[in-house]
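STRUCTURE:
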């Protein structure tokens, strides 16, 4: 297969894969009330469904390098699309909350594996265009995060909540078609992956590397705050006296900012010797946004939301650094698994800790103290995480 056509085909594959790694999560939460009117959703169900994404993304981070040790990245990507399609499609037609959760686990495992497998594919097929392709990857990932919550309710008004969920299953089914073609044609990578290294010595080396731990911590604490804001920002605003419609708009805004910056940060990170100034600036924005939301929410809620959105935009930057700081495709697979595996497990604790502190203390300062402390730690590790040179 000619290299130009192979590159086009892989780009299309990366686009459809990246876009489908989030809609099954962000397209669900606006529909929970409609679901609850038809299917009894207990408090346990709501707690579990909110914790599953980061938890399963974290688990996937540790199992994906081992899968890479046995199968090609192309084959794994096809399996990911099948898992997402099956999980999202079947859960939309069941009536049992338990089965809904089980099918969600299938889809989320697919999404988690997809999170890890895309960076080494970028490294394998575009070793000289890492920043550009990272921009495509991160941008479509953020787009797949931003669009679903905006259209979920309008879709449900036309097709009911089941139809709204099925839209994202259909989107993932397009990914199956694309990746079937890729797997059949098997375009040759420009950088060969030594699969025997991915699940073994490379991962063990990273465990002993301070910079790998720093990048994992920076990524994890970013996602820690992401999931807190995605879960709690509307509630915090309504408790401060704003109406639910405004709070929903602010949630859309806080997700839109990383989407926009996700198209800029990869190229900027490649041109800078170290990305730590970006992380430091974003940490300051995140801290200022939290302080404003805590102390004077009624003064400038849009400003606080914008600052929070800028602050959590270190996530697309972290995904780019995984690819930029890897020595090879196999190193990228191992680093992607290590960073995202540990990072998402760390992130899974965020909404739980914040919810416990908000609901069990009369004052809000313990909850805000935790998020501000997480920013301080991220600030400290960013110097090592962003240092130039391969990890």
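SEQUENCE:
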């Amino acid at each position: 297969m000619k290299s130009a056509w192979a590159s086009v085909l892989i780009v299309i594959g990366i686009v459809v894969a990246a876009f489908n790694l989030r809609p099954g999560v962000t397209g669900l939460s606006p529909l929970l009330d409609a679901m609850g009117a038809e299917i009894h959703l207990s408090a346990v169900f709501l707690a579990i469904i909110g914790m599953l994404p980061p938890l399963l993304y974290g688990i996937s981070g540790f199992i994906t390098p081992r899968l890479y040790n046995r199968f090609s990245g192309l084959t794994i990507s096809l399996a990911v699309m099948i898992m997402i399609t099956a999980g999202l499609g079947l859960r939309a037609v069941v009536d049992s909350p338990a089965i809904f959760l089980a099918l969600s686990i299938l889809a989320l495992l697919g999404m988690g594996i997809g999170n890890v497998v895309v960076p080494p594919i970028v490294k394998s097929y575009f070793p000289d265009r890492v920043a550009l392709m990272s921009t495509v990857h991160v941008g479509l990932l953020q787009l797949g995060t931003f669009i679903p919550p905006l259209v979920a309710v309008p879709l449900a008004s036309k097709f009911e909540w089941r139809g709204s969920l099925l839209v994202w299953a259909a989107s993932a089914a397009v990914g199956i078609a694309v990746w079937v073609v890729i797997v059949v044609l098997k375009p040759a990578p420009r950088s060969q992956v030594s699969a025997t290294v991915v699940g073994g010595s490379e991962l063990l080396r990273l465990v002993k590397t301070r910079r790998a731990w720093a990048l994992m911590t920076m990524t994890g604490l970013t996602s820690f705050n992401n999931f807190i804001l995605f879960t709690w920002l509307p509630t915090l605003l309504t408790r401060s006296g704003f109406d639910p419609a405004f709070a929903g708009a602010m949630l859309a805004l806080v997700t839109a900012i990383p989407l926009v910056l996700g198209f800029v940060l990869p190229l900027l990170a490649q041109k800078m010797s170290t990305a730590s100034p970006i992380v430091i600036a974003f940490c300051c924005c995140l801290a200022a946004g939290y302080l404003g939301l805590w102390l004077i929410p009624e003064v400038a809620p849009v400003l606080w939301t914008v600052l929070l959105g800028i602050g959590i935009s270190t996530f697309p930057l972290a995904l780019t650094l995984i690819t930029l700081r890897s020595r090879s495709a196999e190193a990228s697979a191992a680093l992607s698994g290590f960073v995202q595996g540990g990072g998402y497990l760390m992130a899974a604790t965020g909404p739980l800790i914040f919810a416990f502190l908000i609901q069990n203390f009369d004052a809000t300062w313990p909850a805000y103290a935790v998020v501000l402390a997480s920013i301080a730690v991220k600030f400290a590790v960013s110097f090592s995480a962003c240092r130039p040179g391969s990890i």
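REMARK: The CA atoms of residues 93 and 162 lie 7 Å apart.
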